[in-house]
Automatic annotation (TrEMBL):
Residues 9-277 form the Pyruvate carboxyltransferase domain. SUPFAM superfamilies: Aldolase. One of its GO terms (molecular function) is lyase activity. It comes from Aquibium pacificus. It comes from the Bacteria. Pfam families: HMGL-like (PF00682). Belongs to the HMG-CoA lyase family. Keywords: Lyase, Metal-binding. Signal peptide: none annotated. InterPro entries: Aldolase_TIM, HMGL, PYR_CT. This is Hydroxymethylglutaryl-CoA lyase. The keyword Metal-binding applies.
Length: 305
């Protein structure tokens, strides 16, 4: 398979969802909206602004509908919302969402812990949701635990491919994101799984990687996916994150770290790193947050010496 390494990549900012969801002290809605404005001001466009999900499960995101409504007044933003089932997917669309990210887990243990369903049941929920979507709604499909499960360990590549065999035909034009939920993937695994998936599903035009940096391999895994031809990457400003359903998982790779790496490689992101670093520094100070990443420290120190 011939690999074309993208000369420009899209970074999807997921901090306002993945970065916030494990924070216990409630972040005021106005502050969430302020961060969105500042993030978009750096050149970021697609932002996962929250999730339509049970308020009891993730109380931090109970204001997602209000945040989504505020996005109408933020020029340039493409608000993406996460949903784990048909019910909340419909709620997202009814609230005005034009970009829905449906998530299910390859691992049965994780999917049952997350949404109390077998993965095959989630496949059918995805099928029903897609059938019900009106025209004009973009779709991303997130496959959590594509590489590793917090309960069962390494996930077999064959399991991922088998699940995609059922999912891809439902919406072939959906963007498909393979997620390293625990951060335990390694670059060779990332390269091999994307190579298999791309070869088997040539009809999928947009692949993405959702990487965590729990074991310090987030950037290496992003590089492996880019080297295989993946053009879309999730990241979280200040490296904020952590999954309530994946014990020990820290945040996504930091957005500023990705921008720095790609800039040094000569790959366009459209993001102003000088504008992003102050936002990341403020994000790292959110009470209860778990920040990560290195670039904001290095650049901030360089500016003061």
């Amino acid at each position: 398979m011939r690999t074309v390494r993208p000369s420009r990549v899209e970074i999807v900012e997921v901090g306002p969802r993945d970065g916030y969801q494990s924070i216990v002290p409630f972040i005021p809605t106005a502050r969430k909206i302020s961060f969105l404005r500042r993030l978009v001001g750096t050149g970021l466009r697609r932002v996962e602004i929250g999730s339509f999900v049970s308020e009891r499960a993730i109380p931090q995101l109970r204001d997602t509908a209000e945040v989504l409504a505020a996005c109408r007044d933020i020029e340039g933003i493409v608000p993406q919302v996460l949903t784990p089932n048909e019910k909340y997917g419909r709620a997202a669309v009814n609230a005005g969402s034009k970009f829905v990210a449906f998530v299910l887990s390859v691992s049965e243990a994780h999917n049952r812990n997350n949404v109390r369903r077998h993965p095959r049941e989630s496949v059918e929920e995805y099928r029903r949701l897609i059938a019900a979507l009106p025209d004009g709604v973009d779709v991303r499909l997130n496959l959590a635990t594509s590489f590793d499960c917090p309960f069962d360990g390494r996930v077999a590549e064959d399991e991922v491919i088998a699940l995609l065999d059922d999912l891809v035909p439902i919406r072939p034009d959906a963007e498909i994101c393979l997620c390293d939920t625990t951060g335990r993937a390694a670059p060779d695994h990332v390269d091999r799984l994307f190579a298999r998936a791309m070869d088997r599903f040539p009809e999928v035009s947009r692949w993405a990687l959702h990487a965590h940096d729990t074991y310090g391999l987030g950037l290496a895994n992003v590089y492996a996916a880019w080297n295989r031809g993946v053009p879309v990457f999730d990241a979280s400003f200040a490296g904020l994150g952590g999954c309530p359903f994946a014990p020990g998982a820290t945040g996504n790779v930091a957005t500023e770290d990705l921008v720095w790496m790609f800039r040094r490689m000569g790959v366009e992101t459209g993001i102003d790193l000088d504008a992003l670093v102050p936002v990341a520094c403020d994000g790292a100070e959110i009470p209860g947050g778990l920040p990560g990443g290195r670039v904001r420290h290095a650049l901030s120190a360089a500016r003061t010496t």
